[in-house]
Amino acid sequence: MNNVKDKPVKIMLDKEREMLFTLNVLVDVQDEYGDVIEVFSKAMTDQDFKVIRMVMHAALKEDDPELTVEQVGRMITMTNLPRVIEALTEAIGLSTPEEVEGKTPVEPKAKQKA
Predict the structure, then answer these.
(1) pTM
(2) Cα 17 from Cα 12, distance rounded (Å)
(3) Tens digit of pLDDT for each residue in 31-66?
(4) I need a surface site. Which of 6, 43, 53, 87 has the fewest CB within 10 A?
(5) Domain limits of the chain?
């Protein structure tokens, strides 16, 4: 049984936008960086800006195919970066099945408080 929740995560950037990690998004991330789990981990825990921008672009372009990586980079500032990371973590979590072939999926790490 596939328990993937097809609910996009909304985030206010230049306007309200929606993120959903579809198979197309996961393929784009995999094509660019390889292992999807490692990429998500790097983006969320290491706060690698290049990876965050790329993953955010991949997630947003499902809703807006004309969106460029550079446009996404202009939408993310140091002020909204924590919310961007939070929204990405939520979108990744919502796109992950609760159980795949009897295995529990990797959960995004809880955000750390500064």
Answers:
(1) 0.73
(2) 6
(3) 988 888 888 877 777 778 988 999 999 999 988 999
(4) 6
(5) 9-94
Q: Residue 54 carries which side chain, given as an amino acid letter? A: M
DSSP string, 8-69: PEEEESSSEEEE---HHHHHHHHHHHS-HHHHHHHHHHS--HHHHHHHHHHHHTTT-TT--H
Residue 52: Cβ-neighbour burial (10 angstroms; 0-12, 13-18, 19+): buried
Give the confidence band of 114 by pLDDT, cuts at 50, 70, 90.
very low
Strand partners, 103: 100
Q: Return the structure tokens found at 13.
A: 């950037």
